[in-house]
Amino acid sequence: MEDNQAPLQVEIDEAVARGLYTNLALITHSETEFLLDFLFLQPQTPKTKVLTRLITSPVHAKRLLWALKDNIDKYEARHGAISAGQTPTEPRAGVYQ
Question: What is the pLDDT of residues 34-44, one digit of tens each?
Fold first, then answer.
């Protein structure tokens, strides 16, 4: 890819810019797509709803993984290690909390 491309111009609606807080992700996939469901699970509440669902290709999911890894590395270099508990040896069927 050449470097002479025009810079990407991104617009964002006010409601989208506010964002949504999530503390739970359900991740599933098929042969052609990855589905990422984001939820907010309140303490002592056994029920929640999906706040938003992202559907993407396997190629884009891998690029997202790389981008998250790069950003986490940069964050930890500046602010210190993020304590996320133990790395699960077998996550619960695509549930990441």
Answer: 999 999 999 99
Q: Distance between CA atoms of 3 and 65, rounded to whole angstroms? A: 24
SS (H, E, C) the chain: CCCCCCCCCCCCCHHHHHCCCCCEEEEEECCCCEEEEEECCCCCCCCCCEEEEEEECHHHHHHHHHHHHHHHHHHHHHHCCCCCCCCCCCCCCCEEC
Residues in the chain: 97
Every domain of the chain and the residues it spans:
21-42+49-81
For the entire predicted model, the pTM comes to 0.76
